[in-house]
Amino acid sequence: MEKAEGKANGRIRGNMEHRETHPSKDTEGAMGTAMGTAMGTPETKNTGAARRSYTIPVMLVIMVILGIIIVTLLTRLLVAEQRLVTHEGKRLAKGYAACVSLGAQAVPALEALLSAETAVDRLPVKAQLGALKPLADDCAELVVEAAGREGQDPPEAEAAFREALDRIAAKFGPVGNHEGPLTESERAMAEAALEAAKAWSDALRVYRVPESDQNYRLMEGGGPWVDAAGQAASLLQDLAGRLEANT
Question: Is position 113 within any domain?
């Protein structure tokens, strides 16, 4: 029996040594799978690297496209704003030119009124003075804009300017509507108006009417024209008061 047990134990030890030295195919497969999972296959590594290699260029392309879109939108916004400023500058330049023309045309007309000896001679002169009203209306817009930039209330400034124009027109309406030369009172009013017209032109001469888009934009930003327009408005108010005091 001892011999039989020895033989059995020997066979068991032999089988165990054989298994340790020569593992089975199932064991080898399981170990390979575990190692492959832990370390990753070459195909998986290559796929991850490829994804990373594409991500950065795609992000750069997107950033470039977004940058182009933003720059384009900002450029269009600036161009639109520049057009608005230019348009406003042109409007102001038109008003200032009207103010300059108003004084330039009033001076020779008033000189002709003073030199006219008969009612017939004065008719075309008075028609010329009456034709200045459209210029006065355009000039009023410029004066109101200047007043607003000086802190005054625009509606009040416009009302005061137009009221002064109406007062002057009312006083000059009947002047010279008779035969013979002007009366002493009429001549005094015409001389006061001529003096005011010359002072008006001198006040506006400090600023040159712009003629380019760049200068239109500069005018919209302010400048000497604001003060010049304010002085012209004051001269008009003073003239209206002098004419009424001369009655």
Answer: yes
Least confident stretch, 21-35, 87-101, 132-146: 21-35
pTM of the prediction? 0.70
Kindly report the number of other CB atoms within 10 A of residue 2's CB atom.
Answer: 6
Q: For residue 121, what are the domain limits?
A: 89-245
107 lies in some domain: yes
Give me 151's structure tokens. 């802190």
> Is 46 part of any domain?
no
Per-residue pLDDT tens over the stretch 20-72: 444 444 444 444 444 444 444 555 555 555 556 677 887 888 888 988 999 88
Place of tokens 């009302």: 159
Q: Are 204 and 236 in contact (CB under 8 A)?
A: no
Q: Is residue 28 part of a domain?
A: no
List Cβ neighbours of 33 (8 Å cut-off, separation of 6 or more): none
